[in-house]
Design brief:
By secondary structure, this protein is of the alpha/beta class. The chain has helices at 18-36, 47-56, 88-97, 108-112, 115-121, 131-138, 140-149, 163-173, 219-231, and strands at residues 38-44, 62-69, 79-80, 102-105, 126-127, 156-159, 178-180, 195-197, 200-202, 209-212. It is built from nine helices and ten strands. It has a five-stranded parallel beta sheet, with helices on both faces. A three-stranded parallel beta sheet has the order 6-10-7, sandwiched between helices. A two-stranded antiparallel ribbon has the order 8-9. Strand 1, helix 2 (47-56) and strand 2 (62-69) form a beta-alpha-beta unit. The chain is elongated. It starts with 17 loop residues before the first helix and ends with a helix.
Amino acid sequence: MPHRGKRSWPGPRPAIHPTYFVGAAVAAHIERSIIYNMKVLVVGGGGREHAICWKLAQSPKVSELYCAPGNGGIAQVAQCVPIKATDVEDMVAWAKDNAMDFVMVAPDDPLALGMVDALEAAGIPAFGPRANAAILEASKAFSKELMKKYHIPTAQYETFTDMEQALAYIHRQGAPIVVKADGLALGKVIHPTRLALTGRTVSPGMFDVMVLLGKERTLARLEKAVEFIKSL
Protein backbone atom coordinates (compact mmCIF):
# COMPACT_ATOMS: atom_id res chain seq x y z
CA MET A 1 0.00 0.00 0.00
CA PRO A 2 1.37 3.44 -0.85
CA HIS A 3 2.11 5.70 2.05
CA ARG A 4 -0.49 8.48 2.23
CA GLY A 5 0.97 10.45 5.08
CA LYS A 6 3.50 13.23 4.99
CA ARG A 7 6.14 12.86 2.32
CA SER A 8 9.49 11.94 3.77
CA TRP A 9 12.64 13.22 2.09
CA PRO A 10 15.50 10.72 1.71
CA GLY A 11 17.83 13.23 3.32
CA PRO A 12 17.99 16.85 4.46
CA ARG A 13 15.35 19.08 2.87
CA PRO A 14 16.79 21.04 -0.09
CA ALA A 15 17.39 24.67 0.77
CA ILE A 16 15.60 27.24 -1.42
CA HIS A 17 17.99 30.07 -2.01
CA PRO A 18 16.50 33.55 -1.34
CA THR A 19 17.87 34.79 -4.67
CA TYR A 20 15.28 32.54 -6.34
CA PHE A 21 12.54 34.78 -5.05
CA VAL A 22 14.43 37.90 -6.12
CA GLY A 23 14.94 36.46 -9.60
CA ALA A 24 11.27 35.57 -9.92
CA ALA A 25 10.23 39.06 -8.83
CA VAL A 26 12.59 40.67 -11.34
CA ALA A 27 11.33 38.38 -14.11
CA ALA A 28 7.73 39.22 -13.27
CA HIS A 29 8.56 42.95 -13.26
CA ILE A 30 10.25 42.66 -16.65
CA GLU A 31 7.28 40.74 -18.03
CA ARG A 32 4.86 43.38 -16.76
CA SER A 33 7.04 46.12 -18.22
CA ILE A 34 7.01 44.47 -21.62
CA ILE A 35 3.25 43.89 -21.59
CA TYR A 36 2.35 47.30 -20.22
CA ASN A 37 4.76 49.47 -22.18
CA MET A 38 3.97 48.58 -25.74
CA LYS A 39 4.72 50.73 -28.76
CA VAL A 40 1.89 50.12 -31.21
CA LEU A 41 1.50 51.12 -34.85
CA VAL A 42 -1.85 51.13 -36.64
CA VAL A 43 -1.74 51.11 -40.44
CA GLY A 44 -4.42 53.11 -42.25
CA GLY A 45 -6.06 56.50 -42.27
CA GLY A 46 -9.84 56.11 -42.32
CA GLY A 47 -12.73 55.97 -39.89
CA ARG A 48 -12.04 52.33 -39.04
CA GLU A 49 -8.46 53.14 -38.05
CA HIS A 50 -9.66 56.16 -36.07
CA ALA A 51 -11.94 53.89 -34.03
CA ILE A 52 -9.11 51.40 -33.47
CA CYS A 53 -6.69 54.12 -32.35
CA TRP A 54 -9.32 55.71 -30.11
CA LYS A 55 -9.77 52.42 -28.28
CA LEU A 56 -6.09 51.49 -28.15
CA ALA A 57 -5.28 54.91 -26.66
CA GLN A 58 -7.40 53.92 -23.66
CA SER A 59 -5.36 50.80 -22.93
CA PRO A 60 -2.90 50.93 -20.00
CA LYS A 61 -0.75 48.46 -21.92
CA VAL A 62 0.00 50.96 -24.70
CA SER A 63 2.65 53.55 -23.89
CA GLU A 64 3.15 54.92 -27.42
CA LEU A 65 0.59 54.86 -30.21
CA TYR A 66 1.30 55.67 -33.86
CA CYS A 67 -0.80 55.61 -37.01
CA ALA A 68 0.40 55.66 -40.62
CA PRO A 69 -0.65 57.71 -42.43
CA GLY A 70 -3.48 58.65 -40.05
CA ASN A 71 -5.63 61.77 -40.43
CA GLY A 72 -6.60 64.93 -38.58
CA GLY A 73 -8.96 63.13 -36.24
CA ILE A 74 -6.54 60.33 -35.50
CA ALA A 75 -3.87 62.92 -34.66
CA GLN A 76 -5.86 63.71 -31.51
CA VAL A 77 -5.26 60.23 -30.08
CA ALA A 78 -2.09 59.00 -31.82
CA GLN A 79 1.06 60.28 -33.48
CA CYS A 80 0.64 60.24 -37.25
CA VAL A 81 3.43 58.96 -39.48
CA PRO A 82 3.54 60.18 -43.13
CA ILE A 83 3.81 56.78 -44.81
CA LYS A 84 1.25 55.50 -47.31
CA ALA A 85 -0.69 52.48 -46.09
CA THR A 86 0.29 50.58 -49.24
CA ASP A 87 4.02 51.28 -48.91
CA VAL A 88 4.98 47.91 -47.47
CA GLU A 89 8.75 48.40 -47.60
CA ASP A 90 8.83 51.80 -45.89
CA MET A 91 6.21 50.78 -43.32
CA VAL A 92 8.16 47.71 -42.25
CA ALA A 93 11.42 49.67 -42.17
CA TRP A 94 9.87 52.39 -39.99
CA ALA A 95 8.33 49.86 -37.62
CA LYS A 96 11.68 48.13 -37.27
CA ASP A 97 13.74 51.32 -36.87
CA ASN A 98 11.35 52.61 -34.20
CA ALA A 99 11.13 49.30 -32.32
CA MET A 100 7.40 48.75 -32.60
CA ASP A 101 6.16 45.97 -30.34
CA PHE A 102 2.97 45.39 -32.29
CA VAL A 103 1.49 46.50 -35.62
CA MET A 104 -2.18 46.36 -36.57
CA VAL A 105 -2.81 46.37 -40.31
CA ALA A 106 -6.42 47.37 -40.93
CA PRO A 107 -7.01 48.31 -44.62
CA ASP A 108 -7.58 45.68 -47.30
CA ASP A 109 -4.92 46.90 -49.74
CA PRO A 110 -1.81 46.49 -47.54
CA LEU A 111 -3.14 43.14 -46.32
CA ALA A 112 -3.49 41.94 -49.91
CA LEU A 113 0.01 43.24 -50.64
CA GLY A 114 1.43 41.03 -47.88
CA MET A 115 2.28 43.63 -45.23
CA VAL A 116 1.63 41.21 -42.37
CA ASP A 117 3.92 38.65 -44.04
CA ALA A 118 6.66 41.28 -44.37
CA LEU A 119 6.30 42.42 -40.75
CA GLU A 120 6.50 38.86 -39.47
CA ALA A 121 9.57 38.22 -41.63
CA ALA A 122 11.17 41.24 -39.94
CA GLY A 123 10.36 39.80 -36.52
CA ILE A 124 7.56 42.26 -35.71
CA PRO A 125 4.29 40.83 -34.31
CA ALA A 126 1.35 41.94 -36.45
CA PHE A 127 -2.41 41.62 -36.41
CA GLY A 128 -4.17 40.86 -39.68
CA PRO A 129 -4.43 38.06 -42.23
CA ARG A 130 -1.43 37.10 -44.33
CA ALA A 131 -1.63 37.61 -48.09
CA ASN A 132 -2.77 34.04 -48.74
CA ALA A 133 -5.79 34.63 -46.50
CA ALA A 134 -6.42 38.26 -47.47
CA ILE A 135 -7.17 37.08 -51.00
CA LEU A 136 -10.65 36.16 -49.72
CA GLU A 137 -11.38 39.89 -49.62
CA ALA A 138 -8.98 40.94 -52.38
CA SER A 139 -10.48 38.69 -55.06
CA LYS A 140 -14.23 38.27 -55.24
CA ALA A 141 -13.86 35.67 -57.98
CA PHE A 142 -11.58 33.58 -55.73
CA SER A 143 -14.03 33.88 -52.81
CA LYS A 144 -17.03 32.87 -54.92
CA GLU A 145 -15.16 29.90 -56.39
CA LEU A 146 -14.07 28.83 -52.89
CA MET A 147 -17.66 29.02 -51.60
CA LYS A 148 -18.89 27.04 -54.57
CA LYS A 149 -16.18 24.38 -54.15
CA TYR A 150 -16.94 23.82 -50.46
CA HIS A 151 -20.73 24.19 -50.77
CA ILE A 152 -20.92 27.40 -48.78
CA PRO A 153 -24.25 29.12 -49.50
CA THR A 154 -23.77 32.09 -51.80
CA ALA A 155 -25.66 33.91 -54.54
CA GLN A 156 -25.58 32.66 -58.12
CA TYR A 157 -22.71 34.24 -60.06
CA GLU A 158 -20.58 34.22 -63.16
CA THR A 159 -17.14 35.66 -63.83
CA PHE A 160 -16.08 37.37 -67.03
CA THR A 161 -12.95 38.84 -68.58
CA ASP A 162 -14.80 39.87 -71.74
CA MET A 163 -17.07 42.89 -71.34
CA GLU A 164 -19.46 41.97 -74.18
CA GLN A 165 -20.03 38.53 -72.69
CA ALA A 166 -20.65 40.10 -69.29
CA LEU A 167 -23.18 42.55 -70.73
CA ALA A 168 -24.93 39.75 -72.60
CA TYR A 169 -25.19 37.80 -69.34
CA ILE A 170 -26.69 40.83 -67.59
CA HIS A 171 -29.25 41.14 -70.39
CA ARG A 172 -30.22 37.46 -70.11
CA GLN A 173 -30.54 37.53 -66.33
CA GLY A 174 -32.41 40.81 -66.03
CA ALA A 175 -32.49 43.05 -62.99
CA PRO A 176 -31.89 43.75 -60.18
CA ILE A 177 -28.32 42.52 -60.47
CA VAL A 178 -24.98 43.23 -58.82
CA VAL A 179 -21.86 44.04 -60.84
CA LYS A 180 -18.48 44.02 -59.13
CA ALA A 181 -14.87 44.22 -60.22
CA ASP A 182 -12.84 41.22 -59.11
CA GLY A 183 -10.19 43.11 -57.16
CA LEU A 184 -10.39 45.62 -54.34
CA ALA A 185 -12.60 48.57 -55.31
CA LEU A 186 -13.12 50.24 -51.92
CA GLY A 187 -16.68 49.00 -51.69
CA LYS A 188 -17.74 50.35 -55.07
CA VAL A 189 -20.55 48.32 -56.63
CA ILE A 190 -23.19 48.74 -59.33
CA HIS A 191 -26.43 47.64 -57.71
CA PRO A 192 -29.57 48.80 -59.53
CA THR A 193 -32.51 47.79 -57.33
CA ARG A 194 -35.30 48.60 -59.76
CA LEU A 195 -34.99 48.59 -63.53
CA ALA A 196 -37.53 48.66 -66.34
CA LEU A 197 -37.37 45.44 -68.33
CA THR A 198 -39.57 44.82 -71.35
CA GLY A 199 -41.90 47.61 -70.32
CA ARG A 200 -42.40 46.55 -66.71
CA THR A 201 -40.67 47.15 -63.39
CA VAL A 202 -38.81 44.24 -61.85
CA SER A 203 -39.01 44.20 -58.07
CA PRO A 204 -35.88 43.65 -55.97
CA GLY A 205 -35.25 40.06 -55.01
CA MET A 206 -36.45 38.51 -58.27
CA PHE A 207 -32.87 37.83 -59.18
CA ASP A 208 -30.02 37.16 -56.78
CA VAL A 209 -27.03 37.32 -59.06
CA MET A 210 -23.51 38.67 -58.82
CA VAL A 211 -21.60 39.38 -62.00
CA LEU A 212 -17.86 39.61 -61.54
CA LEU A 213 -15.83 41.39 -64.19
CA GLY A 214 -12.60 39.44 -63.73
CA LYS A 215 -9.56 41.49 -64.65
CA GLU A 216 -11.57 44.18 -66.42
CA ARG A 217 -11.43 46.83 -63.70
CA THR A 218 -11.14 50.10 -65.63
CA LEU A 219 -13.54 52.91 -64.82
CA ALA A 220 -14.47 53.26 -68.49
CA ARG A 221 -15.65 49.67 -68.66
CA LEU A 222 -17.63 49.97 -65.45
CA GLU A 223 -19.26 53.15 -66.75
CA LYS A 224 -20.15 51.30 -69.93
CA ALA A 225 -21.82 48.60 -67.81
CA VAL A 226 -23.77 51.26 -65.91
CA GLU A 227 -25.02 52.83 -69.13
CA PHE A 228 -26.04 49.45 -70.45
CA ILE A 229 -28.00 48.64 -67.29
CA LYS A 230 -29.72 52.04 -67.39
CA SER A 231 -30.80 51.33 -70.94
CA LEU A 232 -32.63 48.11 -70.02
